[in-house]
Specification:
Helices cover about 25% and strands about 50% of the residues. The chain is of the alpha+beta class. Strands 1, 2, 3, 4, 5, 6 and 7 form a seven-stranded antiparallel sheet that branches. A hairpin with a 5-residue loop joins strand 1 and strand 2.
């Protein structure tokens, strides 16, 4: 009977230790998922005249008030797939949270006018709620056209949940 009580005590202690360790294991799993890179794309423009693909890494997701990632890093390549004077564009719309809680957005455009040679890019933003992208092919310009930005459908690359 003493041996049975000893084993019962050891089993209870092991169970208590497992329960205490469980939150630490869950927390470690959450952190590693937050910093894991996820692929996006490839996305093509109309007529497959441009293509973009890459990866996204987010960290510090905060779900207390409004879910946002403390930091989001986007890397990728944009390809110009035409031999004429047009360029390939990848445009990103980044929705972020301001200090007063509003959710404005900004845009980033990356242009490649070199057929057959992909252009690499990387950018980082803070307090990110959503990242969307669109790929266009159009004449060389300082920024993407209104048709590129406002026509067609945006693809969601990241949405904080």
């Amino acid at each position: 009977m003493t041996i049975t009580r000893t084993f019962a005590g050891l089993a209870a202690a092991a169970t208590a230790l497992a329960l205490l360790a469980a939150p630490a294991v869950a927390s470690a799993a959450t952190v590693s998922q937050e910093t894991a890179a996820t692929a996006w794309g490839p996305y093509d423009s109309a007529g497959h005249r441009a293509r973009a693909a890459g990866s996204l890494t987010v960290s510090g997701e905060d779900h207390a008030d409004l879910p946002v990632a403390a930091k989001a890093r986007v890397t990728g390549k944009v390809h110009d797939r035409t031999k004429d004077a047009s360029c390939g564009w990848v445009v990103f719309r980044i929705t972020y949270r301001t200090a007063d809680g509003n959710l404005p957005f900004k845009q980033r455009g990356i242009r490649n006018c070199t057929y057959g040679t992909p252009k690499s890019f990387t950018f980082t933003d803070k307090n990110v709620y959503e990242i969307e992208t669109k790929v266009c092919s159009e004449a060389k310009a300082a920024k993407p056209s209104l048709n590129c930005v406002y026509g067609g459908t945006w693809k969601v690359v990241y949405l904080s949940k």
